Amino acid sequence: MITAKVVGATGYGGLGIIEGLLRHPQTEITSLVARADDTRRIDEFYPHLRGFCDLRVQVAGSEIDRSKPDVVFFATPNGVGMNEARAYLDQDIRVIDYSGDFRFPDPAVYEQWYGRPHASPDLLAEAVYGLPELYREQIAGARLVANIGCFAVGAILALAPALKLGLIEPTGIVVDGKTGVSGAGKTPKPGFHFPHANENVAAYRVVEHQHTPEIEWQLSRQAEAPVNLTFVAHLVPTSRGILDTCYARLTQPLTADEARAAYREFYAGSRFVRISDDGTCHGTGAVLGSNFCDLAINVNERTNTLIVTAAEDNLVKGQAGSALQNMNVMFGLDEGLGLDHWGQYP
């Protein structure tokens, strides 16, 4: 039995990993921690957990662990993991961090995009990027995994095969991303309140979104050449779900059927990537509550453009689901444990 501690347990990301761990047949949650000075049971924060988990949430910094956990999930904002992960790593406890703290090997990139110097730059070299579809072998031997960013999941899965196989140009790529309101987290923010978000679609953080360098860095690794792209995020009036629509110039004439065949071969061993047979995008409704990322691949032969849409649940495949998938790989378990279920359509 794998024992797990969740830091940031009362946020959406913490709730997501709690739900996943409760469904997992080989894990036990030993402690829940949050920054807020609120020590209610977790099922008082989230009543749908009544009868499934009644652990009391402990205040971070003063918590008492019943036993040494095997893995700690930092479902926390940027800046927490880089200050606290070392204490667990020094005890040979594995760490999965949700934030951007460990996603870049160069601390200067982190400081540029996140606006603060990195507190543990020496740990960056050993951190493994948490996308099993591309880095399964590296994750299997990792002590520290940087969980992938929510927008980055769809964009990278949508474009990695084409760049790896040389099907598209590495420059001029456009990623149009749309996310539900839960992507902003549990803490209320004026721009994400219901009166503002309802019946409204708006772009935000144009040209400065923090997932831009993450997407470019990982796609550059696949292309083995610098990848430059334009990424624009949009807030749409839904609770959850992300749809990334990606546009790239083909390097050679290619039919949609040929492109889909190439993608199917590339993701042949990846159970959580589903490829539409005919290029139909079924949208976020088909993946809500699940760990799947659905890809719809099309080619505009008139403009020589590859168009790939990627649909995911931002709180599952874009966050807690990927974290649980990473844990399974780290501990040599079946990758689908706790995750191999369909979504909650509609």
Tell me what you see in this structure.
The chain is an alpha/beta fold and 346 residues long. Helices cover 29% and strands 22% of the residues. The chain has ten helices and 14 strands. The strands form two sheets. It has a seven-stranded parallel sheet with strand order 3-2-1-4-5-7-6, with helices on both faces. Strands 9-10-8-11-14-13-12 form a seven-stranded mixed sheet. Helix 5 (132-140) links the parallel strand 6 (128-130) and strand 7. Helix 6 packs parallel to helix 8. It is globular and about 60 Å long. The two termini are 34 Å apart. The model has no long low-confidence stretch (mean pLDDT 95).
Please describe the structure with a list of short key phrases separated by commas or semicolons.
346 residues; seven-stranded parallel β-sheet; seven-stranded mixed β-sheet
Write the layout of secondary structure elements.
Elements: E1 2-7, H1 12-23, E2 27-34, H2 42-45, E3 57-59, E4 71-74, H3 81-89, E5 94-97, H4 107-114, E6 128-130, H5 132-140, E7 144-147, H6 150-164, E8 173-179, H7 194-197, E9 202-204, H8 211-223, E10 229-235, E11 242-249, H9 256-266, E12 273-275, E13 293-300, E14 305-312, H10 316-330
Parallel strand pairs: 1-2, 1-4, 2-3, 4-5, 5-7, 6-7, 8-10, 12-13
Antiparallel strand pairs: 8-11, 9-10, 11-14, 13-14
Helix pairs in contact: 1-10, 5-10, 6-8
